[in-house]
Amino acid sequence: EAGVAQSPRYKIIEKRQSVAFWCNPISGHATLYWYQQILGQGPKLLIQFQNNGVVDDSQLPKDRFSAERLKGVDSTLKIQPAKLEDSAVYLCASSPFGSPNNEQFFGPGTRLTVL
Amino acid sequence: AQSVTQLGSHVSVSEGALVLLRCNYSSSVPPYLFWYVQYPNQGLQLLLKYTSAATLVKGINGFEAEFKKSETSFHLTKPSAHMSDAAEYFCAVSDRNTGNQFYFGTGTSLTVIP
């Protein structure tokens, strides 16, 4: 079974530029998550999708971050414009069903550096 | 809201020694609990999870964790450290009542000394 795919793996941009990350979850997984992991910290949930609907985006900085999962499969996370403090690893995860005890399967992440 | 505390951001052990990584949670209702491992430049991999069955949970790579309700703890142990165990370890909780949002601790970096 293929795992969660993310691209690109690394991205370097200058502040005020835009960037987009892509995630393809494990086939059949209805729930998709985007996390931000700042160096030295644990992952922080940005947004959670159930199929193509948003379940929780309370910690997404909506003035600059946006995410979509139009067909309920793959997802894109965008930052526009980027700030220095957005430098982090962006992790995508998926789970087969929206129940609390289900394991979340994580992709390798995209490491973003904002200069 | 849930919270997770991992005591010790860095832990060093000698190869072959006991590994003990601490995790405490705050919740009035026992949550679901998870330990994940993260190797450099990789995503998180599940080591084990507690979902209200046996309080002693065995995971991959020889790791295990014991849920202690009285201490609100879920410490991770391994009897004998191996060089390949060097990584970042994260404890996470999920609230039984409000859905499957995970709250992660700040992580513990494990160094194994030859």
Fold and architecture overview:
The complex is a heterodimer of chains A (115) and B (114). With 115 residues, chain A is an all-beta fold. Chain A contains no helices and eleven strands. Chain A has strands at residues 5-7, 10-13, 19-24, 31-37, 44-50, 53-56, 65-68, 75-79, 88-95, 105-106, 110-114. Chain A starts with a strand and ends with a strand. Chain B is an all-beta fold and 114 residues long. Chain B has strands spanning 3-5, 10-14, 19-21, 24-26, 32-38, 44-50, 56-58, 64-68, 73-78, 87-94, 102-104, 108-113. In chain B, strands 2, 5, 6, 10, 11 and 12 form a six-stranded mixed sheet that branches. Chain A binds chain B through residues 4, 31, 33, 40-45, 48, 55-56, 91, 93, 95, 98-109, 111, and chain B through 4, 9, 31-32, 34, 36, 41-46, 49, 51, 90, 92, 94-96, 99-102, 104-107.
Oligomer: heterodimer
- Kindly estimate the percentage of residues of chain B that lie in beta strands according to DSSP: over 45%
Helix content of chain A: under 10%
Number of helices of chain B: 0
Give the tags.
heterodimer; A: 115 residues; mainly beta; 7-stranded mixed β-sheet; 4-stranded antiparallel β-sheet; 11 strands; 0% helix; globular; B: 114 residues; 6-stranded mixed β-sheet
Question: Can I get a quick summary?
Answer:
The complex is a heterodimer of chains A (115) and B (114). By secondary structure, chain A is mainly β. In chain A, 0% of the residues lie in helices and 48% in strands.
